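Suppose you are handed a protein chain with no further information: no name, no annotation, nothing but its sequence. What can you learn? This example shows the usual starting point.
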Amino acid sequence: MKTLHKLSLAKRFSIFVLIALLFSSCHNQEVIVDQIPLNTPANTDIYITGNFNNWDPGDEKFRMTRNQDGTFSIIMPKGIGKLRYKFTRGDWTRVEKNECGFDIEDRTLNYGEFETIKNQVACWGDTEPMNCRQTVFVVKDFPANTPGEAVIYLASQFNAWNPGDLKYTLQKHPEGFYYINIAKQAECIEYKFTLGDWSSVETDGRGKDIENRKFCFDGRDTLFVGIKEWKSIAFRKLRNITIVLDRIPEPEKSGDRYFIAGDFNNWQPGDMAYVFKNDLAGKPFVNISTDQAIISFKITRGTWNTVETRPSGEDIENRTFICGQDDTLKLKVERWKDRAYKPTISKPQ
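A reasonable first move is to predict its three-dimensional structure. Written in structure tokens, the prediction is:
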């Protein structure tokens, strides 16, 4: 009985030691944001969110303290293990992005590895990128049988390996080479070139598929690459169309921007690749390249809540345009879905 009693005491002591070690291993972790984009709205609140609060982007318990030196900080609750987190300004539309405005991986840290962790935010989801690093991909060597009218496309994981994505077509320089500006969307990318379809993807010169090309954004301004051979020289014939907003409702805000959304961009209402610019006369216009015989589309101010409507406020049918009839289309927008009806105005001539 005495032996059993001693073993019992030994077990109790071991448990006590383990508990003491456990509590002593819990750490208060300080997290600091010491740099934010210059275009961050004044007096903004910054939150930390992660696997510790069910990824609530505006959790008041995790609103960071604004310090006199311009930094933001928070002492995380005691814990052990790995922390996964991101910074927001209160909701997921204002979560941090990389310097080119694309999603980033979750940040991670191990409790107690360092007493203080410093972080820098490059961009927010609702602000324009200010320091986007881009690399120009230049194709100087390509197959001699590449058709003169053909367009070369770049397919990658960031465009879901779409072999004919019109957003990622290479431009042809007057000197004969092709090029495209690629913004940093991840630390490294994989990609291939096509003539618009996987049946016309690049090959190794003997007709065999090649491994995906790889590139890591390392500060280089220019990357020179060569294409040895196409699997076939079948290509997509593109047409260029200019759409002009000839008459629009009188703007209520000077910062209004107009977008075109259609079957050529998966009906994205605020796609920055299809934002209208102003010509020299002040009229909004956008250029579209397509290989479709007919395109369908609508005009928005960035969301479906701001789409064009009839003067009564009722939805309009999708606009359509038969490609090849003309290269310029002038439109009249009667009303926006979120605004009262006002007579349209003609833009300056």
